Amino acid sequence: MDPDTDTKTMADEDEPLFSNLDLFLFSLIVGLVIYWFMSRKKPEPIPEFKKLEIIAPTTRETSFIEKMKKTGKNIIVFYGSQTGTAEEFANRLSKDAQRYGMKGMAADPEEYDMGELSRLSEIKNSLAIFCMATYGEGDPTDNAQDFYDWLQENDDEDLSGLNFTVFSLGNKTYEHYNAMGKYVDKRLEELGAKRIFDLGLGDDDGNLEEDFVSWREQFWPAVCEHFGVEALGDDSSIRQYELKEHTDINMNKVFTGEIGRLKSFEVQKPPYDSKNPFLAPVTVNRKLNKGGQRHLMHLELDISGSKIRYESGDHVAVFPTNDAALVNKLGQVLGVDLDVVISLNNLDEESNKKHPFPCPTTYRTALTHYLDITHPPRTNVLYELAQYASDPQEQENMRKMASSSAQGKALYQSWVLEPCRNILAILEDMPSLKPPIDHLCELLPRLQARYYSIASSSKVHPNSIHICAVVVEYKTKTNRINKGVATNWLKNKLVTDNGHKSTVPMYIRKSQFRLPFKASVPVIMIGPGTGIAPFMGFIQERGWLKQQGKEVGETLLFCGCRHKNEDYLYQEELEEAEKNEVLTRLNVAFSRDQEHKVYVQHLMKKNKEDIWKLIHSENAHIYICGDARNMAKDVQTAFYEIAEDVEGMTRTQATDYIKKLMTKGRYSQDVWS
């Protein structure tokens, strides 16, 4: 045997069937096959979805007819209210109905379909009462705007089955005195409605409460005669809300000053309005005057990130709080724990108004944030509280002041209004008067927002709103110091308070007080004292337009203060604007820097030729801001006299001329009384 052959044969016999490479490849193939089987996507079962139950959103009842039928009401009192007074009067009238065997409800026209007025005849002995306030330059209040539009637009409406009466709230110092109430009264009659009692005119420049009480005293007998009913003779107190004390409640569910939504001050959500104000941080709070007894101030509110937009001439509304010292004194006089958590629940479960203010809350929060404790209380409050006076003489005096007798009216005027007695002063001066705090909280009116003319332009300050105000503080006839709620609260809004930013709850109220659309149109601005506020915005805007290369017309300013060295507001800014020719002419009246007083109207007459040329030949727009009672009237008279002196007009012709300017939107006023 060949040794080489033999060796090869033995080697062949020892060699395995598969080489290592074969085994590796085989393993790889098997692994891939298994992986493929394992990783194949299995068909997913289609899940079964349960049919969703669609829950209809809860909607507020917009049919006042159905609500009246459901609750057995036959009198409805609609209110157009900006500051709460008309709403207060409406509530008083709806409560009165009960004393005459009828049932009434107060209603916000914004919440109901006013087209249903024609259906009121479906309810026996039905009556609609309208308590309508006038706002601004003869405008409807915000909540009555839709109703006003509806009245204007529906000429074919047949209201022949509607019985109605109107009480109007206004102020004689304004050009368009009680315009809204007069319009509603006239328009309802035009549409066929039957007036069952004369239009009532309330004048806030005189004694609005007395006007209302006098009208009301004659109104109810007329209603009784019309419907053939008699008064029940029940003059007892009628409670509208019942008290519930919460001994065990989650404090996260308790209102702490929010106007609308609970916790809205912690989690802010736009849009911001009267029911959802924005908490604007105070970035500037400086004193404007260099001397004198008064405190004039300039504040700046930061609106960054709020999406709030404003225009020059708009108003900023702020929600102030009452002085803590005043609230504490009330608690002490009444001998109550102000930190008890309570709810006041409407006894009428069908009412849209479940509580007089956000509940649940504490007495302290209610008296601090929600209730007006500084204004002299109205006669109905005195009437309702009289039962809690243990001294017969004090009880008699309170009832007398609430009556419509001449003696009662005189006593209310001399004891409450003239000495400016607020509820605390009345409780202090009538020691036997110890009302339950829950009834007092039911009767006091709501603390209202305060409006200020914005002193800035959004073109220059898009993220900031400026306020110019004078702090109100005075001594009363009883030697008490009364302080303006909002201005003293704003004065104490320091930029940082114990390391925290001070904030102001606010929103914007749009105004008709607007610069001309064309920048080339001349403007004449008259604003003494803090009346200069909107004109700071106008001047900033005209300056901005000039920087943009726009042709800007002549810009005249007539402003004033007492002393040049004490309270010349915005002196540096105004003189800079004149230097840069943004202000064509700056005219400042320093009323007390000489023996005889000099006011803006005197400076106007000194410039009568230039003023008349701008008005008569160049279509200038006139703007007036400030005191309505004296200044606005004196300025208007000055315009009459300029027309007489320069153009030779008679007083009648001059009056007609200025009225035409008003109609054309060339004579605008932003005034207050």
UniProtKB/TrEMBL annotation:
One of its GO terms (biological process) is response to hormone. PROSITE patterns: FAD_FR, FLAVODOXIN_LIKE. It is a single-pass membrane protein. Residues 75-220 form the Flavodoxin-like domain. The keyword Membrane applies. CDD domains: CYPOR. It catalyses: 2 oxidized [cytochrome P450] + NADPH = 2 reduced [cytochrome P450] + NADP(+) + H(+). Its cofactor is FMN; FAD. Residues 275-516 form the FAD-binding FR-type domain. FMN binds at residues 81-86, 133-136, 169-178, 204. GO terms for cellular component: cytosol; endoplasmic reticulum membrane. NADP(+) binds at residues 294, 530, 591-592, 597-601, 634. It holds the Pfam family FAD_binding_1. This enzyme is required for electron transfer from NADP to cytochrome P450 in microsomes. It can also provide electron transfer to heme oxygenase and cytochrome B5. This is NADPH--cytochrome P450 reductase. It comes from Hippocampus comes (Tiger tail seahorse). The gene is POR.
